[in-house]
Design brief:
2 copies of one chain form a homodimer. With 343 residues, chain A is an alpha/beta fold. Chain A folds into 3 domains: 44 residues, lambda repressor-like DNA-binding domains (434 Repressor (Amino-terminal Domain), Orthogonal Bundle), CATH 1.10.260; 130 residues, Response regulator (Rossmann fold, 3-Layer(aba) Sandwich); 137 residues, Rossmann fold (3-Layer(aba) Sandwich). The first copy, chain A, is built from 13 helices and 12 strands. In chain A, the strands form 2 sheets. Chain A has a 6-stranded parallel beta sheet, with helices on both faces. Chain A has a 6-stranded mixed beta sheet with strand order 7-6-8-9-10-12, with helices on both faces. In chain A, helix 1 crosses helix 2, helix 5 packs parallel to helix 13 and helix 6 packs parallel to helix 7. The longest helix of chain A is centred in the C-terminal third of the chain and has 18 residues. The interface between A and B is large, with 45 and 45 residues. Chain B binds a DNA duplex (16 and 16 nucleotides) through helix 2 and helix 4.
DNA sequence: TTGTAGGCGTTATCAT
DNA sequence: ATGATAACGCCTACAA
């Protein structure tokens, strides 16, 4: 069922049908009604592929992220998809995976599909390598990075001040009497680096020099949630064995922290009395575990909401700033609260 | 950069370029090499929109589910997307929302995009209304329902025997000495109904008649995880108040159960000693909460894996059965274990 | 107000 | 082995 078929049935030309479909003005009410009727009777469905080809605009936008299973990313994808769909765009969501090659492949898919715009979720896209890739391969469509920024004319960024956020965390811990915090990081990403920097700034205020700062790295082959949990346990065991003097731990993400909580309980170490524990990302996991996890809310969902709004503005040629910044909160729960005494 | 541009530069016709791109045989090695070279030099990217129009096949598949934030669905989407992408298809993932109207809209998007096939995740798509919709609107492409089935020529289904699964749960509880289980359900879905049926079958074996069975319903406006958690708490409070004699509760999904756990702790009711708690879906949440949640693994990820395999077979015209069934396991954790005595 | 014709970038058929 | 041409379904000047 094409506009040709409808045109024939209605005794008009295809262009007239097209006009009716797209609510153009300057059409006889009578013919419009007749065509409308035929369209419904035959339940005509327009062909977005043909339309995209003709209009040089697919109304598709690409969403790239390393792994949709990361719980903080899932909700981001959700809000973006909802907003875009509401505005008549269709989303292609791709879990790229870790390697640059995988990311390049996904970018190529976006190119082939001729997406009108894209959102990249995660600071992992804030790299020089990605900048080069974008300059050569996606320089003609608007792109928004959620939690990252690249200085290119067609790229927009919403960043979160995570460095300050983690610095605040350390300060918060200190205010509760925790004097010797450790930091557990994971894969090297710009976001992770900012957090580590914040941690170092924080402990410096406690009189701990950067080189004395206790920082462990828990690498994880895959963004599989169950795996991250286990890695959190493992690294925590190692940490408390090698540094029994540590009185608090800040983990790069909630799940690592929760893995830590489990190990600490297993070892008979009381949280928050003996060790305070703090996660990052404010995922639901942190509400569920016991003790409930104090966590840094780095506003990832809000970041994504903004990203979609910015992309829509750019697509519709509205003026927009290229860079936005959001700030974090600490969500206080039971895994830190030394002052309160008994849990 | 189109095949015309390349053709001109290479001094050949567009068809020749097309042939090179698609690795057709019967081309002079010399020209192939020359064209290949030009393609790379100009980093030509093929236009899948044009290709789709010409080939009458978009290589796009649609994935519909009510809400991607449901954690058991997230992983399903992930595995499907990975498999499809690997096979050269691109996925459009749509969180439809609850209402039929929303679902119809999403189906329309799939139609407009001329997807080659679709996967519907969730038993909510196993309804008469959906069958009618599919017969009229998507009768010409293969569709697979994950955790559901409709008897239409182009529809395939992978179902899980959840009725038997929940029946097993009750039997399992009984084997631990729990004699009076309650069931907490939620929105009415086919899957929910099967589970309820299983529960009733189960308690009948304990000498409880269907009308005596204690069943509560916890409605939730939205599939928002945080909200589900709260609803679990609320309904549990009501349940234990009205039925203090209940010694175990089976919840429709893990998060409801965990909300229940929280409330029970608040009320000073010991799990598993006073009340045994059992979830469904085997999500990561159940590993994290305390006590860790015993849960029915209903194989949703495996179901989705199968769904994508079946869809690929159907797309490539391989013979496939229309209906598959998987069976559940019980994942035993600390929220039931009366026998062991002390936790 | 409506129709004609060309173009969007491919693929496929039929010649050559 | 290669080229010309039509077709895919739609949109949009431009013409009438």
């Amino acid at each position: 069922m094409t506009i040709y078929d409808i045109a024939k049935a209605a005794g008009v030309s295809p262009s007239t049908v097209s006009r009716v479909i797209n609510n153009k003005k300057g059409i006889n009410e009578e013919t419009r009604r007749r065509v409308q009727q035929l369209l419904e009777e035959n339940n005509y469905i327009r062909n977005d592929t043909a339309r995209g080809l003709s209009m040089q605009s697919t109304k598709i936008i690409g969403i790239l992220l390393e792994d949709i299973r990361s719980s903080h990313h899932t909700e981001s994808v959700y809000v973006i998809e909802q907003e875009m769909t509401r505005r008549g765009y269709t989303c292609i969501i791709l879990s790229t995976g870790r390697t640059s090659e995988q990311k390049r492949n996904c970018v190529q898919i976006l190119e082939q599909r001729r997406v009108d715009g894209a959102i990249f979720i995660g600071s992992v896209f804030e790299t020089e390598e990605m900048a080069v890739l974008l300059r050569t391969h996606l320089s003609n469509i608007p792109i928004v990075i959620a939690n990252g920024y690249l200085d290119l004319p067609n790229v927009y960024g919403v960043v979160v001040d995570e460095e300050k956020g983690v610095e605040d965390c350390v300060e918060y811990l200190a205010s509760l009497g925790y004097q010797l915090p450790a930091f557990v990081k994971s894969e090297d990403t710009p976001s992770g680096q900012h957090k580590e920097d914040g941690f170092i700034k924080g402990v410096e205020k406690l009189g701990i020099s950067p080189k004395e700062a206790i920082i462990y790295s828990s690498l994880c082959e895959e963004a599989n949630p169950g795996l991250i949990l286990e890695r959190g346990s493992q690294i925590t065991e190692q940490l408390v064995k090698e540094h029994p003097e540590v009185d608090s731990i800040v983990y790069l993400v909630d799940l690592l922290a929760i893995g830590g909580l489990m190990k600490l309980e297993e070892l008979g170490i009381k949280v928050p009395q003996q060790i305070g524990v703090l996660g990052i990302d404010n995922t639901l996991y942190g509400r569920i575990c016991k003790p409930a996890l104090t966590t840094l809310n780095n506003k990832l969902v809000e970041t994504s909401k903004n990203a979609s709004r910015i992309l829509l503005d750019a697509l519709e040629k509205n003026e927009t700033s290229h860079k936005f910044m959001l700030f974090t909160d600490i969500v206080e729960r039971d895994s830190t609260r030394k002052k309160e005494g008994i849990l």
